[in-house]
Amino acid sequence: MGRRILVVGGLAAGPSAASKAARTNPDAEVVLFEQGDAVSYGVCEIPYHISGEVKAEDLAPFTPEILRATRRIDARVLHRVEEIQPHRRTIRVRNLAGGTTLEEKFDRLVLATGSRPRRLGMAGEEARNVFRLKALDEGIALRKFVAQEHPRTAVIIGGGYIGMEMADALKSLGLDVTVLHNAVLPMKGLERETRECVREELEKNGVRFVSMAQTGGFVRGGDAKITHVLTSDGSFEAGIVVVAIGVEPNADLARGAGIRTGASGGILTDRRQQTSVDNIYAAGDCCEVKSLVTGRQVYIPLATIASKAGWTAGENAAGGSAVFLGAIRAIAVRVFGLEVAQVGASEADAREAGFDPVSETITGWSRVAVMPGSERVTVRLIADRKTRRLLGANIWGREGAVLRANTLAVAIQQKATIADMQQWDLAYSPPFTPLWDPLLVAANAMHKKLGIP
Amino acid sequence: MGRRILVVGGLAAGPSAASKAARTNPDAEVVLFEQGDAVSYGVCEIPYHISGEVKAEDLAPFTPEILRATRRIDARVLHRVEEIQPHRRTIRVRNLAGGTTLEEKFDRLVLATGSRPRRLGMAGEEARNVFRLKALDEGIALRKFVAQEHPRTAVIIGGGYIGMEMADALKSLGLDVTVLHNAVLPMKGLERETRECVREELEKNGVRFVSMAQTGGFVRGGDAKITHVLTSDGSFEAGIVVVAIGVEPNADLARGAGIRTGASGGILTDRRQQTSVDNIYAAGDCCEVKSLVTGRQVYIPLATIASKAGWTAGENAAGGSAVFLGAIRAIAVRVFGLEVAQVGASEADAREAGFDPVSETITGWSRVAVMPGSERVTVRLIADRKTRRLLGANIWGREGAVLRANTLAVAIQQKATIADMQQWDLAYSPPFTPLWDPLLVAANAMHKKLGIP
Q: Which of A336, B28, B115, B435 is the right S-S partner for A205, CB 3.0 to 4.6 Å?
């Protein structure tokens, strides 16, 4: 009989690990436990379901039945793993439907317990018109709530990228939207100029952005709903409230088993995704990841990283020898008509990691300037003064920003220098790209800024 | 007094070299000679002027006056350089307006004499409804001809990328368009699957594509116009004819001065863009260029290469020490609704250069599949079996093909392997990119095809 591989968590890294394990080792028995009632759904698509762009049935293409039939994974929803006994190689699992507890033996265990939304810790946070957007059912519930109860106002607490996506989605449904944010500009982690542009785009589209807002509490109405959010800047009417103040790693189960975690609370793994405990792997939002720019362990809860790390964990749990080297942090978001992307280190990250960062910003065109549909694209590069290596970039514009950011993501990972970038031979075609692509314009400007060697 | 830098050719590489020279050395006297009556215009935009997307006045943003006023370049149009006397460091220049001939001394000379369209060498080729698209006036004349004489039919001789752009442009003006091509599929140099897709797109849009066509001659009508094109497949009515069978380097002037040229007839330079003759530099379509993939000298007449090589020639002519390392061949074209791009070596190129090329094709999505507007994107990668290095790629689709091709262009230049590609951390955002970008899907498929090391 083949080895028994248990996977805990059914969202992104978990199904990815389970699929890869089953494919890598056809003799293995692969069982996946998920405490919720759905697996493998598109968390990142939830804002686009709320806006009406994506249908509910398209959010969850994989059911437990499909995983079983097509991927040879025994997927058990409504099963919560409550304890790991590493020495006995067992886990204790509660069947939430029946209430019974089982012990399951494993040869290899993969933890993909994900993240959980941060809470404000205030009375009223559980009211039925307060939503987080971490689970499929909440996203569907929010859309239903808007459709049935026609709230006129929305308050979004948190001006990160989920906050931006939700502002866009709720505005498109006709709500009056307020974003409360605990800094002057939205989207911490991006460069100042980018953040100013995002704020402008919000305001241009009629979203009220309240900077340096401290949420003080909620005012409850008569029917288990919040009516207002109280802040240091006054009270805001709220037909619905979205709390999007970030996530934290769900690593309690791992810590209970003596598995090492890092400064963020995320599980530490090696590049084979093995934890500090033999035979136990981990992947996804419950883990830290190595920054390919700074070499440090960081916490970047993104599905792209989760799925690659999940593959690696699954392949290795099944007896393979895959590695996942790390991530650079690559983020893209649509804010109304604006594409906004960040790749690699911010200037602040770079400085903190010991680089001597130099930044330069240029504005170019998405296509040949005189072609219909051509839009301004702004590129901000961050390079290391000494090595002249590209460390990070922000790109924004109404067209062609995100895919260009991905080109820079590759450049960062391939350790391109500014001199390399100046030599880039890129395709030029008037309907798609100008003769001097904004990426080349940026490289030339940065070269000038760095001075002749 | 500063050095005297003469530049021959006013289209792409010439103005680029002259501008850079004037900027690099503020004491230099920079004179540019152009035999036509315009400088620095957008040849690549001509098809989009013909379609009506770009206005005539937007084709030529730089006049000789602007070059003089803003860039300190003494630009002389209607001046043909007829001879170089390297030992005396002089050139003989004919003023085409006055007919006089002058001798001009130089300290450094930059040749940017460009390319010329290949000719069929058939009687009737000079008829007033036969056009090539190498010069601004021809593009403007073609559009005027269509507007004034309302031809119903167009025959395009040549199925390369200019032929494709012209088919698109003329079809959009309502003409009945036939493309005569000397091979089974259009766009030689692309992979078979890409070419099949392009042919399909032509036919889907009502363009008649005649494969393996041998142009036999023209039938002349009464008013200095062609009425039909004769081929091995019969006669085609032609209210206008576009001859787009490629270009060849314009290197006669250089050869006359004893400057070395390569197998294609293009001028050979070192990576400082210096020719085999002291004090004479060259750049652009009159030159060969080093392939960054195969290391060989190749002929790639593209504006992107011309402008970078021009910069390098200009900087060095002015006393700087710039290098231009070479090019990979990066081409993009819009064929009706299709974005088509090629970067790096074709499978055939790669094999001929001594690689052991492996190709793999996948089809992914431009955005998250269930997002409105998401389109299929097909990626064909060409990798070297031994080193696993990415050598080339074709990408096509109705959205997000060209910018993704540019990401692969960078990967090729940064010498990425397929293993590197699998690790790429790319931004994922439903309106712009799927969780597994087509580039990652392609890398994973290629990894599988190459087998476990």
A: A336
